[in-house]
Input
Amino acid sequence: MTNIPSSQVLANWVSRLVQIPSITPSQAHRLSGFSGEGIIARQVAQWFKNFGGEVYLDEVAEDRPNVYGIWRGRTNTWAAIDIHLDTVGVGQMSIEPFSGEIKDDCVYGRGAVDTKATLGIILAILEEMYHRKLKPATNLLIVGTADEEVDGLGAPAFAKWVHQEGIHLSKLLVAEPTSCKPVYGHKGEVRMSFTLLGKSAHSSSPHLGKNAITAAAKLIQNFESEHQQLQNNIHDLPLGPATLAVTMINGGTGLNVIPDSCCVSIDRRMLPGENSEAIVQHLSEIARQSSDLEVKVEVLSVLDAFYQSPDSPWIQWLVDQSTLEPGIVPFGTNAWAYKGLAEECVVMGPGSIDQAHSAEEWIAVSELEKMSSILKKWWEVSF
Ligand SMILES: [Zn+2]
Output
């Protein structure tokens, strides 16, 4: 197999995508350009059409669509690749975020590694396949998902669409920067807040009030004990134990006022097989038993864990292609929403997560070439 698409073509595609800002709206900033996925989604839909795809837009929030492109294959099996279209904000960047500059065999800018790299590679291959009138070995469903970085609305919308269409996926790749290592697991998360409701009084007569901050202190200690207990739970997955961290606290209205309210927020990382509803119940119970104050409990977000056996044939095939051992990652991905959606699921993509969300985001062209050759072998297209 030759070196097509060439490194220049791959770099140009990634650069083109970086030049279309698609910042998740809640992280928009005066330097962000336009935010949201609407513009990039419509442009990607146009390219998909130009390269022979059947295209569908699925609006998951206002002007924030998922894009689905289908290329019919030489067999009737189905494979899908999820690439999120949104990026984080650019306020923290030290380089021009949307230049897409290609320099020293790297492409620079927001989204270069997370995760426009995989989309650029795929567009380059699809373009070449179209000109050569080649079909992939399997039906291909390429998905640009909205809203991965913040609320995760795009992934469950895609899963729902696959069910509605009656598509049975045999393979599903979730694109994220893993340095081309096949990743088969990550934890899930439950985020909650607990607002303790006390009674205010003059601070010179604390006995006349009910101090919500003092009650919160006890609750925080109990959450810390819960975290310690979780560390003792032995299991045979390589993900490490579940964790519970208190991440925010907010309370008090004045130096001379007994606080009538205090809000404690937590982040509970879940293992595969843990039930988020049971966790919510359990933590609510801890909160109720920590004090005699009324507690208002809010569940802010729930993302499931992802786990797939590393011994499955496709993961083993990807291990051979990448020459890297399969692994797990500490961060969450859209795979949280895909339980049971495909026979085999993997998280994989070029470049390192250490370059993502950073002040100087970039992707090495050598990583683009590596992932391009793996995708071509997977789809059994040779040029
Ligand atoms: Zn990402």
Observations:
- The radius of gyration is 24 Å.
- The chain is about 30% helix and 25% strand.
- Residues 84, 114-115, 148, 176 surround zinc ion (CB under 6 Å).
